[in-house]
Design brief:
The protein is of the alpha/beta class. It has helices at residues 16-25, 56-63, 67-71, 74-83, 99-105, 126-143, 155-165, 205-211, 228-239, 255-259, 275-279, 283-290, 301-310, 321-329, 333-346, 353-366; strands at 3-7, 30-35, 45-48, 90-94, 110-114, 149-152, 170-171, 190-198, 218-226, 244-247, 264-267, 294-297, 313-315. It has 16 helices and 13 strands.
Amino acid sequence: MQKILIICFSNLKKDPRVYRQIINLKDDYEVTAVGLNDPEIDGVKFVQAEKHKYTRKERWLLKLGFYEQVYWKNEITELKEKLLQEKFDLIISNDIDTLPLVIEAAQGAKIIYDAHEYYPEQTNNFVWKFFHQDYYNYLCRKYMKKADAVFSVSKPIINEYRNNFDIEPLLYTNAAEYYDLKPSETGDKIKIIYHGRAAGIRGTDRMIELAKHLDDRFTLDLMVIGDHEYIKMLVNKAKKTSNTKVILPVTREDLVKYTNNYDIGLYLAKEESSFNVKNMLPNKFFEYIQARLMLAIGPTKEMARITKEYDLGIVSEKFDPKELAEKINSLTKEQVMYYKNQSHKAAKELNSENNIKSLKSVAKNLLK
């Protein structure tokens, strides 16, 4: 059986995109997974990676252009030595942080690079741009063309890679697997859910701001993970409202079935969000669809395009909590039910099946 290495510096059990790669290739190949946490999948060998935080010295070295020196820190060098002990036929490198390592450890293996998002525009944060942006431009420019195939999450991000690095990634969305569910009945109380990582950069607190403008037919639950202090702030903010609460997260495996009991899936980015945020197609978007929820979102390009194309819900004209709240207030429960049924239809198409077919096809062709 041919050997595949799948690597990402993330918690593999909680990273839906990488977890799906592992679970869908493990029956056809001998899979080794490298990450911060074991995916705990039968038959999959796990190799531990270490999480790295940049020191002040390393940030200044990046600013001065010592990119390779900073990249090849001790934990990366040690991990390379571990990987060189085994020969693989194919390596799937997730995120640019793994790609130089993978190229050095390949030993003739074919390489699929899953770029996920657009790395040189991760955030608009001044400190990140000052110290890190040139570094990620360098990594993309030097290493991406060395991969045998490249994937990314949305068409605008693919276009950005093409325009700036002369790379043509294949589209591989964050679509969730298909769930055989039906829309739940919408009652007089219309239940809204937001789930995902809570962070100021993502504007999670804006969901509570939006809820303040909703009429008394609506409730909002925030199911969030992330920074403890930020979540504590959200809890305190939610307590000051009558219609919002922060709830405990469920497991990734239970998420879609649990949220099937809600009516509307919510997401509103910030006006000043980064290129990635404005052009992303996050896991939650597809999970809302699989949960058969109506969508209520801001004008995030690809999410808005798909929402309108499949008639899945409402899209605000601006990144404004009050405007989106007013659009929600205008809904009847019959309209909510209509949009939920539209998600039910779209769920049969907007799932991970096409992504997995594409991944398997590319892997098979590279391993001929």
